[in-house]
Specification:
The complex is a heterotrimer of chains A (195), B (212) and C (230). Chain A has 195 residues and is of the alpha/beta class. Chain A contains 6 helices and 8 strands. The two termini of chain A are 23 Å apart. In chain B, α6 crosses α7. The longest helix of chain B is centred in the middle third of the chain and has 30 residues. The two termini of chain B are 27 Å apart. In chain B, 54% of the residues are buried. By secondary structure, chain C is an all-alpha fold. Classes of the chains: A alpha/beta (195), B mainly alpha (212), C mainly alpha (230). Chains in contact: A-B, A-C, B-C. The interface between B and C is medium-sized, with 34 and 33 residues.
């Protein structure tokens, strides 16, 4: 599904990684680990197509509407409500039966009560849950998750465990970048450690 | 048709955001009125009626600039553009929607500015209004693209005036011409040409400004 | 192309430029007869207009390279487009200077808003200076290359649009104070002189372009090698 050869990405003079080869097959659950600055987020952004490689090439066999990307930021408008944000993404992703799907996800992540509140008033954990809703909204084939557990409280983390288990069972392809290997070791089919 | 649907959804979002925060339009309205008042003091006696029209257009351009400075603020600060860019929607739809929103804000500001101008200075004729409408299209089209560029730089809003002003000099010429010339049709036609050319260019190149 | 051949090409271009310019200037100042109305002063035309046309050519070249970058996503074009803009700005500044001198010798003023070329170049100078501001304040990378290319395209479209605007503005904004009594039909000798000067300035721009581009690419290569060794 993802093939990368001699991948390199620079920001100005700073080289985040170089000469990276990667092969991710369908249904793999790849956990990407490494210290800060090792390029985990950069690698995910490259897979998403948000960044172009400085050198080398990367090929993702999935069209962009089938990719679910969870970034450091929740990528939602703080002045809009959870419902409004997901409705916008829902329209842009042309999701059939949009309202039902949004309602289901909000419920699943425990945000239904707060659905009409301004996202700016959300706690970090709630915003992260909303970000997860946004990522899963269009039922993507390829998931790119950058530190998904960040900011989640215990309940939220358990919810996420359940989600990841479901994805694993559904044989979705996942790339998950994290510090916390132990948490996701049970889901991982493979691990990639960036220097 | 989904293209128009995307533009509508995005434009609705932009208008909704402004309705909630209410910061851009009031600022633009206040600015343009304040500018007109300043002009009264900057025009020496006997400057002639025509000078006032010139200053009106300066005010309009700078009011547009003010509105544009904040155009991509949320998208930039919260990196939301990444989220929008990943959707299957055409990236130019983002430009069209944002441009429509900016246009709406500018029109609202002018709804106050033109009567104020007529009150303080000179009468506002049909050609002037036509010129303003055409000019607004050009300002919004070009400005939205440039605002996205500025948002991607380190200098952010500081860069926008530098990029914007040289490109809109033709708009000022067209607008002033439509306001004072004996044959405004020529200038209105020119504004239409500017709008067409730069709208197409902006529409086609927006994709490259927001992706790598 | 092997290095020696490439080096030779650049040297030939530079030598050719020097030769053409010397010839052109000699022709312009010694051979071609005085213009009927303006007299000796008119000779600056043989410097001013070729320089202006060369600037246009540079901006056009930059836009072309920008278009290539956007369509192929090959980042080599970024440096080429940037260098072309750089050349364009240099020649643009020269145009403003020579145009100002011409205005001074013709009418006794250093600036005239009724000089279309001069006003156009002022606008372009502003525009392309902002190009450098844009590049300077954006981190190097694919995004900056894309935006520079788009901006270069806008520039080349701005040229005719601005020219039109300036013409429209003429009667409207500033009275046409000075009018150049240009005899539209150039005599053969004038044409020849003009042609040689134009070829010379174009060759000069080309030589400078190649020189700067080579230098910048060497810098790039050096940086890469340093990194690889580190």
């Amino acid at each position: 599904m993802i093939t990368a050869r001699a991948l390199e990405r620079r920001f100005g003079d700073k080289r985040v990684f170089s000469a990276l080869d990667l092969d991710v097959a369908d249904s793999e659950f790849l956990v990407v680990t490494g210290p800060n600055g090792s390029g985990k987020s950069t690698l995910l952004a490259l897979c998403a197509g948000l960044l172009a490689p400085t050198r080398g090439e990367i090929d993702v066999a999935v069209p962009r509407e089938r990719i679910g990307y969870l970034a450091h930021e929740p990528l939602v408008y703080r002045e809009l409500s959870a419902l409004e944000n997901l409705d916008l993404y829902g329209r842009l992703y042309r999701i059939p039966e949009r309202r039902e799907r949004i309602g289901m996800l909000l419920e699943r992540f425990g945000l239904w009560e707060a659905r009409r509140e301004r996202v700016g008033a959300f706690s970090r954990g709630m915003a992260q849950r909303l970000a997860l809703c946004r990522t899963l909204l269009h039922d993507p084939d390829l998931l790119l998750l950058d530190e998904p557990y960040a900011g989640l409280d215990r309940d939220g983390a358990e919810l996420l465990d359940g989600e990841l288990a479901g994805l694993r069972e559904g044989r979705r392809t996942c790339l998950l970048a994290t510090h916390d290997r132990e948490r996701v070791a049970s889901f991982a089919t493979r691990e990639l450690a960036l220097a | 048709m989904t293209y128009l649907g995307d533009v509508a959804a995005l434009a609705r979002k932009d208008l909704l955001l402004e309705l909630r925060s209410r910061d851009t339009v009031p600022a633009m309205v206040l600015f343009v009125v304040a500018a007109l008042v300043v002009f009264n003091f900057s025009l020496p006696a006997g400057s002639g009626t025509l000078a006032a029209y010139g200053l009106l257009w300066v005010a309009i351009v700078f009011t547009a600039l003010l509105g544009l400075m904040r155009a991509f603020l949320a998208e930039r600060e919260q990196r939301i553009l990444d989220g929008l860019v990943l959707t299957p929607a055409d990236r130019s739809a983002i430009w069209a929607a944002k441009g429509l929103a900016v246009l709406a804000f500018l029109l609202l500001a002018e709804l106050v500015a033109l009567p104020a101008f007529a009150l303080f200075f000179e009468p506002v004729g049909a050609e002037l209004v036509a010129g303003v409408l055409l000019a607004d299209l050009g300002l919004a089209a070009v400005g939205t693209l440039l605002a996205a560029m500025a948002a991607a730089s380190r200098a952010r809003e500081l860069l926008l005036p530098l990029l914007f002003l040289p490109l809109v000099i033709p708009v000022v010429v067209g607008g002033v011409g439509a306001s004072v010339a004996a044959d405004p049709a020529r200038y209105l036609g020119f504004l239409g040409l500017y709008d067409l050319v730069f709208a197409i260019l902006s529409w086609a190149s927006f994709e490259y400004v927001v992706t790598e | 192309m092997s290095t020696s051949l490439r080096n030779n090409g650049a040297v030939v271009l530079a030598a050719g430029a020097a030769a053409l310019l010397l010839a052109g200037l000699a022709l312009a100042f010694y051979w071609v007869p005085n213009a009927p109305v303006e007299g000796f002063r008119q000779r600056i035309f043989y410097v001013h207009v070729p320089v202006a046309l060369t600037a246009y050519a540079c901006f056009g070249w930059a836009a072309w390279k920008g278009l290539r970058l956007l369509s192929t996503r090959d980042r080599r074009y970024d440096l080429e487009s940037y260098t072309a803009v750089h050349m364009g700005v240099i020649f643009g500044a020269l145009t403003l200077v020579t145009g100002s001198i011409w205005a001074r010798t013709s009418w006794g003023v250093w600036w005239s808003w009724s000089e279309r070329q001069l006003v156009l170049f002022l606008i372009l100078f502003l525009f392309y200076s902002a190009y450098f501001m844009l590049r300077y304040s954006t981190d190097p990378g694919p995004r900056r290359a894309n935006m520079s290319a788009v901006y270069a395209l806008f520039g080349v479209v701005l040229i005719p649009v601005s020219f039109l605007a300036i013409r429209l503005a003429e009667g409207l904004i500033h009275p046409v104070v000075f009018d150049r009594n240009v005899d539209e039909n150039l005599a053969a000798s004038q044409l020849v002189t003009f042609g040689v000067c134009l070829a010379g300035t174009l060759a000069l721009a080309g030589a400078l372009y190649v020189n700067e581009l080579t230098g910048k690419r060497l810098d790039e290569r050096l940086r890469e090698l340093r990194e690889a060794l580190a």
